[in-house]
Amino acid sequence: MNLVPLFVAVPLAAAFIIPLLGIWWKKSGEVLAPVCTAALAIMAIVQTGAPASVHHMGGWAPPVGIAMVSDGLSTLLLIAINIVAFVSIIFSLKYMKVYTGLTKYYALFMLMVAGMNGVVLSGDLFNIYVFLEIASIASYALVAFGVDAEELEAGFKYLILGSVASVMLLFAIGTVYAVTGSLNMADVAREISVRFGTSMNPALLLAGAMFLMGFGLKAALVPFHAWLPDAHPSAPAPISAMLSGVVIKSLGIYAICRVFFHVFGVASGAGGSVIYANSMIAFAVLSIVLGGVLAIGQWDYKRLLAYSSIGQVGYIMLGIGVGARVLATGGQLSVAALAILGGLFHLINHAAFKSLLFLSSGAVQHATGTRDMKQLGGLRETMPITSWTINLGALSIAGVPPFSGFWSKLIIIIATIKAGHFVIAAVAMAFAFVTLAYYVKVQREVIFGSVTKLVERAREVPALMYVPLIILAIVCVGFGLLYPVIGARILEPARDALMNGTEYIQLVLG
Amino acid sequence: MTVYFLCVVLLTMGLYCLVAKKNIVKKVIGIVIMDYAVNLYLIIIGYKTGGVAPIIEADMPLSTLERFVDPLPQALVLTSIVIGLGVMSLMVAMCIRLYEKHGTFDMSVISKLRG
Fold it and tell me: Which helix (H) or strand (E) holds A59?
């Protein structure tokens, strides 16, 4: 049986049924949402072994009909989205008790999952836009879910900037349609390569710039990052984990990869591809530098994590951008493969450890009532399990050797050196140490040090909250130690799918 | 060509309104103007002088078939309007909540976060 449409249908149906049942049955969300996300997580794991497939919606073949395409790259994102969604929902069960209107929370959460699954599975540009809007609208509402002054302001800011991004994307999609006469991504890609070859079309360049701006804003790359440091800390912790862990990646990084590699044909050196690749690298380096510099000075635990997200997304983009540049300039294929593999590996690693850290910040806030690092300290005395998971997450993201973050950053930096960008590699390496520095600060201020008054009164969080932390900590360690399994099963198919644009066209159009 | 240019002018006007105005309701209006500029752009892409609705009947002359307008941009615009409505209602709802908290629509008074 083909599982692909269910990834969108199940959460969408759940988002509809939860508030409907919620009228009579207050616990509908708390029962249905974990069941659905667990099913989705299992489906995503099952999907990893499956070969690339295309599902024709309503039986209409592309380019006329809408297709859902599941290839290696989609599978990678599906794994990240659905597993993080599952652990976040489990964490929500206890954590969200203090809020009211919980059926709405679970409905919006499922809507967000449906939108993200839709984005990574859609084979049609306009459908990507629609699913992206579904996920975005749900996340705007979830950021402001606390309806306090700060949450509302952050949500409003995110909403305004997100809407600008959506307008840019729709403009770009319209332009692409005007030039090629199609919206199916494979069909557009074929049309572009047949009609323009390696020459540059100015209208497509405009569309490319708009796409980079729109998706770059959703991914919070640096010139477009202003919303993230407000939105991520203000949201409830499970939503912060979703936003930082997977939303910025599926709506931003994934969409950039898909559009530029498979539609604009960056991998095959189509017109303007060097410009796109160079801008990706430029945004990436800016993100790494600014995210790192701003993270050091933060004393709000969640805000520090949010700035760190900007820097880490920069690393992901650097891997992808260097790979794109090597492919576009006709360099060595092995170097490009290494760079892209590093970027994708860092993507899935970051999904694991950043959602772990944000959930742990929620646990700390739940237990002590604060996220100001000056008022925290000595957490290992009163909350040993949470402290250990924070430790593991911080070591992974800081790039300490046996853990996952070390390997992915190492691969990205080696590939950057091999591609001949020595200065960029030096910057990336220097800011890897900056990352280490601010996570050492987290460890010193939160976990070790003398026990403060707030921490003294704190108790270890209930099992429903620390079990998700333990699951994610195991995943973090597992990604570092079991690379051969993860690499062959998830990462290499994703890399191959990304690098072979022609294969994608053949897969969809037959 | 002029219509496309005017479309971009409208888009820039919306963007200016969004950036320059301090009143959050005016910012919302800026977003809506931008949204409609893009909708207009999509409509212009599919526009055809003297076009007819693309409904095929059994014995249609070729000259009529050639005058069919492209229905796809219109479908896109319909979807986009619906999405725009959803976003706008969320924006207005947040504006009302912000007004309840602060008693003002002025962003410089509301703004406490550092960005």
Answer: none
Contact present, A122 and A128 (Cβ < 8 Å):
yes
Mutate to test the interface with A, among B82, B109, B113, B114 (most CBs of A within 10 A): B113
At residue A153, the 3 state secondary structure works out as helix
Q: What is the DSSP string of A196-230?
A: HTTS--HHHHHHHHHHHHHHHHHHT-GGG-TTHHH
The C-alpha atoms of residue A271 and residue A264 are separated, in whole angstroms, by 8
Q: Which of residues 58-77 of B touch A (CB under 8 A)?
A: 72-73, 76
**Cβ neighbour number for residue A23 with a 10 Å cutoff:** 9
B32 touches chain A (CB under 8 A): no
The per-residue pLDDT for A297 is: 87
d(CA A453, CA A177): 61
Rounded CA-CA distance A338/A487 in Å is 12
**pLDDT computed for residue B113 by the predictor:** 63
Please, is A196 exposed, middle or buried when counting C-beta atoms within 10 Å of its C-beta (0-12, 13-18, 19+)?
A: middle
Tokens of A286: 């800016």
Checking if the pLDDT of A1 tops 70, the result is no
Mind telling me how many Å the CA of A63 is from chain B's nearest CA? 13
Domains of chain B: 2-48+61-110 (1.10.287.3510)
Q: What does the pLDDT average to over A102-121?
A: 94
Cα separation, A151 vs A439, in Å, equals 26
What is the mean pLDDT of the segment spanning A110-130? 94
- Name which of A227, A142, A167 is nearest B31 in CA terms: A167
B35 in A contact zone (CB under 8 Å) = yes
Ranges of each domain in chain A: 6-509
Mutation target for B interface from A167, A177, A230: give the one with most B CBs within 10 A.
A167
Q: Which residue of A has its CA nearest to B73?
A: A174
pTM: 0.94
What is chain A's length?
510
Rounded CA-CA distance A52/A48 in Å is 10
Helix (H, G, I), strand (E, B) or coil at A53: strand
Residues 6+ apart with CB under 8 A from A359: A87, A88, A91, A237, A238, A241, A465, A468, A469, A472
The CA distance from A214 to A211, in Å, is 5
